[in-house]
């Protein structure tokens, strides 16, 4: 795909996600989180392209958090953003030292590092009076997170295209939620973005995420439709066809006749009372 067609595809997918989740409204002041990675450069460009032609008016402010990693090239992003003529702000907070101090040597630092980064960005968002915070997560991030949660946390959930932050103060949007990662990689190559690698900190890669990434890349190679089917399945949830008793009232589904009949021996209304035990780990055969 050449640059023109790729930009068309990227803006089409982002515009669809923005419309489906009503991510952007007239008068929004959007903080675009820019890490220096391919996804965040792609996000900023796509939002700029949409800004130029969208029927609603919204403002973009690029924000980068300088986490004081050794070797961080602090001139790269300001120069890039100055050239584009985009409003921006560089925040400085030495989260690198905090992570190094708190975590034992050799431990993967990304989870704590991301939490600290999110806290710093949210505080800045409140101070700057922005209405939305845009993050560069893409379709494959959503799918990886879905399987990470299933495989390692026994829960069904991902990073949603739009959410309210836990403290209730911010609305976070992910306009690239429908965009395959390979498009963003190709876009970054064609546009020659000045990529700053995330692992300047020397952190080990998250092995579990890397394993899931390999798995979904293999699926994509085998059947290019599969990842979009997984994405669409996240948008087509049947709570009554899953098994979460907190999300669906299975208990009130009662056979009219059976539920009205008392147990013939005990006289109890529900013959399973007292027999139900918590589900334990499956015994080995
Ligand atoms: S690679 Fe380093 S900078 Fe990037 S998220 Fe992980 S710990 Fe943070």
Would you mind describing this structure in some detail?
A motif (PP-loop motif) lies at residues 35-40. Keywords: 4Fe-4S, ATP-binding, Cytoplasm, Iron, Iron-sulfur, Magnesium, Metal-binding, Nucleotide-binding, RNA-binding, Transferase, tRNA processing, tRNA-binding. Residues 30-191 form the tRNA(Ile)-lysidine/2-thiocytidine synthase N-terminal domain. Belongs to the TtcA family. The structure is a single chain. The protein has 285 residues and is of the alpha/beta class. It has one domain (3-205): HUPs (Rossmann fold), CATH 3.40.50. Helix content is 44%, strand content 9%. It contains ten helices and six strands, in the order H-E-H-E-H-E-H-H-E-H-E-E-H-H-H-H. The protein has helices at residues 3-20, 38-53, 76-84, 95-102, 110-128, 139-153, 181-191, 207-222, 226-234, 256-260, and strands spanning 29-33, 59-66, 88-92, 132-134, 162-164, 171-173. A six-stranded mixed sheet has the order 3-2-1-4-6-5, with helices on both faces. A hairpin with a 6-residue loop joins strand 5 and strand 6. The longest helix has 19 residues, at 110-128. The mean pLDDT is 92. The structure holds iron/sulfur cluster. The site of iron/sulfur cluster has 9 residues, from helix 5.
């Amino acid at each position: 795909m050449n640059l023109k067609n790729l930009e068309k595809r990227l803006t089409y997918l982002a515009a669809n996600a923005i419309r489906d989740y009503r991510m952007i409204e007239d008068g929004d002041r959007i903080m675009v989180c820019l890490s220096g990675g391919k996804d965040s450069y792609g996000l900023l460009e796509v939002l700029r392209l949409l800004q130029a032609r969208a029927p609603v008016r919204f403002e973009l402010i690029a924000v980068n958090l300088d986490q004081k990693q050794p070797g961080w090239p602090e001139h790269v992003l300001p120069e890039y953003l100055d050239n584009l003529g985009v409003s921006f702000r560089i925040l400085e907070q030495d989260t690198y030292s905090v992570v190094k101090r708190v975590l034992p040597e050799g431990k993967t630092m990304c989870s704590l590092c991301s939490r600290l980064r999110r806290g710093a960005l949210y505080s800045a968002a409140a101070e700057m009076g922005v209405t939305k915070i845009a993050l560069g997560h893409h379709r494959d991030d959503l799918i990886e997170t879905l399987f990470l949660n299933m495989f390692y946390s026994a829960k069904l959930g991902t990073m949603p295209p739009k959410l309210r932050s836990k403290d209730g103060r911010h609305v976070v949007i992910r306009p690239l939620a429908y965009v395959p990662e390979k498009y963003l990689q190709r876009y970054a190559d064609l546009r020659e973005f000045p990529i700053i690698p995330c692992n300047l900190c020397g952190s080990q890669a998250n092995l579990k995420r890397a394993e899931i990434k390999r798995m979904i890349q293999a699926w994509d190679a085998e059947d290019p439709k599969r990842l979009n089917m997984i994405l669409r399945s996240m948008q087509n949830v049947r709570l009554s066809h899953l098994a979460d008793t907190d999300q669906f009232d299975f208990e009130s589904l009662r056979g009219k006749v059976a539920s009205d009949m008392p147990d013939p021996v005990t006289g109890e209304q529900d013959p399973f009372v007292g027999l139900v035990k918590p589900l334990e780990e499956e015994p080995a055969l």
